[in-house]
Amino acid sequence: MALLEIQNLTVQFETASGWFKAVDGVSMSVAPGEVLAIVGESGSGKSVAMLAVMGLLPWTAKITADKMEFLGRDIQKISAAERRKLIGKDVAMIFQEPVASLNPCFTVGFQIEEVLRLHMGLGAKERRERAIELFKLVGLPDPAERLNHFPHQMSGGQCQRVMIAIAIACNPKLLIADEPTTALDVTIQKQILDLLMKIQTETGMGLIMITHDMAVVAETADRVIVQYKGKKMEEADVLSLFENPKNPYTRALLSALPENATGDRLTTVSDFLAAAETGGAA
Fold first, then answer.
1. Nearest Cα residue to 221 out of 38, 48, 51
2. Where are the domains of the chain?
3. How many Å apart are CA 164 and CA 158, to the nearest integer?
4. CA–CA separation, 174 and 165 (whole Å)
5. Cα(169)–Cα(94) distance, rounded to whole angstroms?
6. Residue 258: is its pLDDT beyond 80?
7. Which pLDDT tens digit goes with each residue over 78-123?
8. Cα 93 to the chain's mean position, in Å?
9. What's the family (predicted)?
10. Are 108 and 151 in contact (CB under 8 A)?
11. Sign of the C-alpha dihedral, residues 20, 25, 30, 36?
């Protein structure tokens, strides 16, 4: 059984000129232990689709799907209380901006212990012990002391590790990582990706990696979905996608990689698509 199965998901937002489709008929599934990458440019609907699954879009958003199930359970029909029990425990998400995602008014220790209290029912001593264990797991130095720090006292990379610790605190079956290395320097990016893959391998959880970075896709994914302007352009296993992309947009993304550059300048996605429309070569 798939962990998550979505069929024909559409998400619309009302604008001054009418309803705008941020996600347009997207279908996907992810199995236990599988790493699914969702790739595309900014604005392609990657994050919006997952926020719809998490129930984190504003109430004004219009969300429809033929199917949206987690372990066979229809998450479109569950109550708000049932969704709160599910989200954060069995399904967790790491957001793009770790510093902005943490509450600046509370210590990081309080924030991770709150998750353990709500979803695991642990007592104060057990919560602290588990929080220290999680901070050790994600590689934070002096974990017991770190519990007393506020987000502004930590670097971006350290805050991202805190977010990962919070996300995996309840041993989720599915983890959604939304651009988990955004705004981090290259060295820290590698450390965060290695950490995520280590946790995924050891726990066997399903992992959805949202990214615009094809190098991240090549390094982490089993299967890839390519999105463009809210629609799914292509879906394939990672090797097939890189060796034999079927869709012009996928080929455009790959042609824009620095290692595929020819001449004195990079081929942009726009260059490739414009050339494809006229029958020329980018």
1. 38
2. 247-282
3. 10
4. 14
5. 12
6. no
7. 888 888 888 888 999 998 888 888 999 999 999 999 999 989 888 9
8. 7
9. Belongs to the ABC transporter superfamily.
10. yes
11. negative
